[in-house]
Amino acid sequence: MTIGSRRGWELPESAATPEDKFLRRRDLVKALAAGPILAASGIGLAGPAWATSGLYPAKRNPRYRLDRPVTDEKIVTTYNNFYEFGSHKQIWKAAQKLKTRPWTVTVDGMVEKPFTVDADELIRKMPLEERLYRHRCVEAWSIAVPWSGFALEALVAMARPSVGAKYLEMRGFHDASVATGQRQVWYPWPYLEALTIEEATNELAFIATGAYGKPMPKQNGAPLRLAVPWKYGFKSIKSITRFTFTDKRPVSFWEEIAGQEYGFWANVNPEVDHPRWSQATERQLGTGQRVPTLLYNGYAEQVAHLYKDMKGEALFR
Ligand SMILES: Nc1nc2c(c(=O)[nH]1)N[C@H]1C(S)=C(S)[C@@H](COP(=O)(O)O)O[C@H]1N2
Ligand SMILES: [Mo]
Asked: In this structure, is the dihedral angle defined by the CA atoms of residues 280, 285, 290 and 296, taken in order, positive or negative?
C-alpha cells in the first residue's frame, strides 16, 4: 500500500468548504432559478451531474464535527472499497465507466405509494447540507470526510412507510457490462444493505450525494450512497438504485457471503475483535498514525440508545 502521505494533518477542517464558496453557490442558485437559458450556459456545471452540481458546496451543519483532521481528498477518492469494480483498493479509474446520470431511484415495498424518481430530481427536493463524518472500515483503516447530502429521515418521510415496516433495504446497481467485478458471479449481486427504521431515522443516518464540496465522485458511490458512521464501512452502501421498506430482516451482501464475520448490525466496537483480526485500533489514512477505535466510532451519544434493550444480538460484527 502506498498511502504514506502526511498531508491529512495539514488540512484544517475549514479547508472542506470555505465560506466564500458557499456564498458564490447562493449566487449560482439564484442564477439557475432565473431560468433555463442561464442554466444551459454552463456556469459551474461539472459534467453530466449538471442538474444538481450547482448545489455544492452545501452549507455545513456545525453539529457534525470531527476529533481528527479531514482526510486528504486525494486519498479518499483513490483508495476505495467498491467490489463492483474489483476486490482491491485501486478501482477509481475503473469506476469512471459507471454511468451515473441519468439515474433512477425506486422507493417501494411497504409504503403508501411506491414511486420512481430521477436522482437529481430527488436531490433537488431534499434539504442538502454538509457534515464532517468519520468512517471506519471493518478492515481497520479510517478516514474523515466532508460529505454533502441529506438526512435519510427526509427520504423515509417522503416515502410514508406503513406502520408495519420494520426495515429499510437498499440495493446497488447490477450491470456486469460496466462493473467488471460483477462478472464474479459467485457474489450475490447487487450489493445490498439494510437498517432498521429506527436506525434509518436516527439523525446520523445520511444519504451522501457529494464530497469535499462537490458532487459525489463515482468511485465513492455516485449519485447517492449511505453514510452511517457508527457502523463498519460496509454498511454504507454506494450507488443506491432502490429503497425497499419491509417487515422481514434482509440478509445483506456481506452477511450472505460470510455471516460469521459480517453481520446485520455491524456497530463499531474496539472490544469485539473480527474473527481474524483485532478491532482495537485503526490506521488513519494520510496520517501514518494508528489510533484507538472508539465505541460506535465515537457516536455513542447519538446511537447507543438504539441497542440498549437488545439481548442475544451480535451487535458488533
Ligand atoms: N455498492 C457498494 N457499496 C460499498 C462497498 C462495495 O463494495 N459496494 N464497499 C463498502 C465498504 S467495505 C467501505 S469501507 C466503503 C468505502 O467507501 P469509500 O470508498 O467511499 O471510502 O464503501 C462501502 N460501500
Ligand atoms: Mo469496509
From this structure: negative
Atom of ligand 1 nearest to the CA of 80: 19
- The mean pLDDT of the chain is 88
The total of other beta-carbon atoms located within 10 Å of residue 91's CB is 23
CA distance linking residue 109 with residue 165, whole number of Å: 9
Contact between 238 and 172 under an 8 Å Cβ cutoff? The reply is yes
The pTM (predicted TM-score) of the whole model is 0.86
3-state secondary structure of 227: strand
Can you read off the three cell numbers belonging to residue 22?
458557499
- State the distance from the centre of ligand 1 to the C-alpha of 18, rounded, in angstroms: 27
Identify which has the larger pLDDT, 33 or 220.
Answer: 220
Q: Which domains does the chain have, with CATH numbers?
A: 44-307 (3.90.420.10)
Q: What is the pLDDT of residues 214-244, one digit of tens each?
A: 999 999 999 999 999 999 999 999 999 999 9
